[in-house]
Amino acid sequence: MNTIYVFGHKKPDTDSICASISLSYLKNKLGFNTEPVTLGEINKETKYALDYFNLVEPKYLNDVKLQIKDVDYIEGCYVNEKTSVNNVYNYMKENGLSGLPIVDDNDIVKGMVTLKELAKELIEGDFENLNTSYDNIIKTLKGKEVLRFDNEISGRIIAASFRSTTFVENIKLSRDNILIVGDRNNILKYAIDSKVKLIIIVSDLELSEENYKLAQENKVNIIKTEYDTYHTTKLINLSNYIISAVHCSMPLCIEQNDYYSKFEEIAARTKFSNYPVVNKQGECLGLLPLSLSINSHPKKVILVDHNEKDQSVDGLDEANIVEVVDHHKLGTLATTLPINFRNMAVGSSNTIIYNMYKENKVEVPKEMAGAMLSGILSDTLILKSPTTTLYDKIAVLELEKLAGVNHQEYGMNMLNAGSSLDGMTKEDILYHDFKKFKYADDNIGIGQILTSNVADVLDYQDEYIQLINQISKNEDYKILCLFVTDIINNGAYVIYNDSAASILEESYGLNHIEQGTYLEGIVSRKKQIIPPILETLEKYN
To answer: Domains plus CATH for the chain?
Structure first.
């Protein structure tokens, strides 16, 4: 069963990460195969929560773009370089292939054989020399083993077409010869005395006891075949190793983790018919022919705490969204098939997920209770945010018992752990919890940082103003703000790009705004910060 990835937005906060973890656990209990992942670095507040409840930090997911490994290439479609020409041809014919990768004993690609090259070998090939194995000859000629001393057979092929006297007098035999012969006892004895590499006895004829013993003494390999001399001579070259008999050009290989879109660009440019698929070690995994009708298996994902494409994982268009659990306004997300979409006007995604546990009668273990509790307390600022609902309050009261903590004490410790700005650059702080969205043709960016010591930011206000003005100019933001939320006094200081001053004045009903203005009671980006800005912009569009 393919893994379903569960993740929040690109700038993960505690609600986003904990929702991924708690929903993944629930889904797995209901029989799904899911894995919680993160799209970005986990912040200090979230790390505190995960460490407190002994929760494993989710792995990082870079993107969900379609990869070569997500399409139905022909797995295991390659042959060893010591496979016979005959077996290669039959394999290609049975599987309708125009090309086939050739690999060494370590499965490393050594070349690509095509039907064109095989046909050329059958018409223009070297019909005098053989380089193959004893087993290949047996299989190609439907032969029987009589005597075997060598597994590797190479030499010049000679068919005993002259009468015995003429042959013995005029043909010099050596260890480098492979003789095709019938019931010619004198020639057989001459060949055995000459210690040829291999004797192929045609028409299933018997070898005399005398010649058998002599061949044993001289260590001469012998094979019998039911074919006559004509057919044996015609078929023997097909037992050659493919690597030595046919020109195998070096193909363009594609790595299984390569993006399929990149492969399409390469294929359009190179116009080859077949592409070997390899792993990171260069080992061949199979073949992707362009003639194949490609069936893809997009990655399956569940989105939590967001439903905006811009906030989500790269390559979302190439994935299969199976479910969304969110508590924000409806965004730009679109799907090709119906999905489960759970959206409630509550303070936290984890409040919704906790109710899903109860609906499905799934027991909530302590660590999952802690995860959901952490997410709710973070997003509602310990139930002080105006986004807080009765559902959130009920969930917190029930979850704190299951988690074994006092929600007020634990929540304050968690927020304080996350409010430390030590080691963060000014750009880190601006983008720490950042939401970018568009209104009409305008770009809007709202950063929010929660802290119990606002002086850590306000003391460097001029530097933040310079940074925000520069970014807004470079990246064409109409409005770019950093809201410094005071978790002790329940309000926020706003720093903004200078050109947005008049919009912010109208949005928050201010006669005059200046950098670092304190907005009492303004703590929720979703309910108190963004809506007034959008209302103001609407008046001018």
So the answer is: 4-64+299-418 (3.90.1640.10), 143-226 (3.40.1390.20), 426-539 (3.10.310.20)
Residue 1, pLDDT score: 59
> What is each CA distance from 466 to 49, 432, 463, 469, 496, in whole angstroms?
34, 18, 5, 5, 10
- Bridge partners (DSSP) listed for residue 101: 112
CB 131 within 8 A of CB 151: no
436 within 8 A of 445, measured Cβ to Cβ: yes
Cβ burial, residue 452 (10 Å; 0-12/13-18/19+): middle
All residues at 6 or more sequence positions from 465 whose CB lies less than 8 Å from its CB, including other chains: 495, 498, 515
Percent of the chain at pLDDT > 90 equals: 77
Q: How far apart are CA 57 and CA 43, in angstroms?
A: 11
pLDDT tens track for 2-55:
899 999 999 899 999 999 999 999 999 999 999 999 999 999 899 999 999 999
3-state SS of 104-164 is CCCCEEEEEEEHHHHHHHHHHCCCCEEEEEHHHHHHHCCCEEEECCCCEEEEEEEECCCCH
Q: How many angstroms separate the CA atoms of 378 and 41, rounded?
A: 17
Residue closest to 87 by CA, chosen among 206, 226, 223, 243: 243
- What is the spatial distance between Cα 104 and Cα 120, in angstroms, rounded to a whole number? 23
End-to-end CA distance of the chain: 49
